[in-house]
Amino acid sequence: MKRLQVIFENSRLIARCFLHYLFRGKANGHLTDPRSGIIIQRGQFGDMIVTTAMFRAVKRSYPRCRLTVIGNAINRRVLEGNPDVDEYIVWEDVPHIIEKLKNNTYDFGCVTVVNFHSLAALYLAGIKTIVAPVIRDGWSPYETRPYKIIRNFVIPKDHHMRQYVPREYLRLLEPIGIYTEDTKKYIYWTPTAERKAKEIVSSPRRQYALRIGIMSGAGNTVKQWEPKKFSQVADYLVEQYNAHIFSIGSELNRKENDEMIAHMRHSDCVTDTLGTSVDEVKALVSLMDLTVSVDTGPIFIAEASGVPTIDITGAIDVHEMAPRGEYHLVVPAKDGEPQIWTMNATVYDHVEARRQIDSISVQMVVEAVDILIAKIEKKRLHA
After folding, report:
1. For residues 343 and 320, is the Cβ–Cβ distance under 8 A?
2. Cα separations in angstroms, 274 against 222, 284, 285, 352
3. Contact residues for 60 (Cβ-Cβ < 8 A; gap 6+)
4. Fewest Cβ atoms nearer than 10 Å: which of 48, 163, 346, 350?
5. Model-level pTM?
6. Distance between CA atoms of 368 and 348, rounded to whole angstroms?
7. pLDDT attached to residue 1
8. Residue 322: CB partners within 8 Å, gap ≥ 6?
């Protein structure tokens, strides 16, 4: 019954798009000097952070352009304080978004991820120039027939699977004259959050040499590295480097977080920060010397803040999203074809994906820790 309802609603949307096309034509004009624009990013925490490179590119090229971002509720808090974003709209459904947009005049709009409803909302809102991704070098379950139909009414832009996603996002800006490879991410927090974060890192009574942020929860069972393994890495950091551990995440990660701490020999060397606000998490991560986690949102806060990271990727394609650079190390699965991509994060071999994350040993992560801390210490000596 639900499937029939979805088919019916999608058919109505397609019909409305055809009527819109008959009366108003395509939304495929190339622009220079746009005065307003919309970027839809309905992905998760980390997806929004990597998209901040797009926002900066727009503002750098067109400082007077008013930029609106549409996404989920939590990402409103992720983007709070970002000077490149003039307005944030929480996605509800197609009718609500059309109603909010139709009374304004937007020069351009784009959808970062393949999604029929997002694209239909922009087109039916009457936006003049719209850009939408076309999947190349792979397959995406999101690239549905309805999406392909209405994409004919807008400007298509190639999105190459297995390539660096932040760079692929930037291609969506080329029809408005922006050509850049600058994928730097940006994150901001309030002075209040910074004061709170400084209180947290100064709260341990013991003297320690390194602040290590560990995000033990993945928010996804296929990405989840065993909490017991995280506990062994944490103990190693305490014993070998006199580190203090700051466990970071949301209350949704409480089970994994508590299990990690329960299995530590040095649980007195952990400060549990779960329950802090998104604003405070942003500030707290920026104060770490190093973070260790699976591929999860806060790791991109670390990257944007210039904090070294160790990314336990498991079944995720390491080329697409993992932080890049000398102070960002990836610990991939021992073997096997990656199972999870940004444009295909739902259809894959779950058993194989689970095997790949389980194949990553504590020793593999510890070796990455040693390499990265040696680099950090060398940098400090030459500072």
Report:
1. no
2. 22, 11, 12, 31
3. 180
4. 346
5. 0.94
6. 28
7. 57
8. 295, 311, 313, 316, 328, 330
Tokens, residue 2: 């639900």
Report CA torsion sign: 24, 29, 32, 36.
positive
Radius of gyration of the chain from Cα atoms? Answer: 22
Tell me which residue of 273, 262, 298, 112 sits closest to 189, measured CA to CA. 298
Q: Please provide the DSSP assignment of 306-328 as one string.
A: T--EEEEEETB-TTTSS--STTE
Q: Answer yes or no: are the C-beta atoms of 68 and 97 closer than 8 Å.
A: no
The SS3 assignment for 342 reads coil
Under 8 Å between Cβ of 295 and 46: yes
- Per DSSP, 86 falls in state S
Q: Is 365 helix (H, G, I), strand (E, B) or coil?
A: helix
Instruction: Kindly state the percentage of the chain with pLDDT values over 70.
Output: 100
Looking at residue 138, its amino acid is G
d(CA 161, CA 14): 27
pLDDT digits (tens, 9 = 90+) for 299-310: 999 999 999 999
| Cβ density class 5-43: b for 16+ within 10 Å, e for less | eeeeebeebbebbeebeeeeeebeeeeeebebbbbbbbb
Query: What does the angle CA 163 – CA 168 – CA 169 come to, to the nearest 5 degrees?
Result: 145
Q: Which two tokens stand for residue 156?
A: 């298509």
154: nearest Cα among 105, 178, 118: 118
Q: How far apart are CA 254 and CA 191, in angstroms?
A: 27
Cα 263 to Cα 257: distance, rounded to the nearest angstrom: 10
328-357 pLDDT, tens digit per residue, is: 999 999 898 888 888 988 889 999 999 999
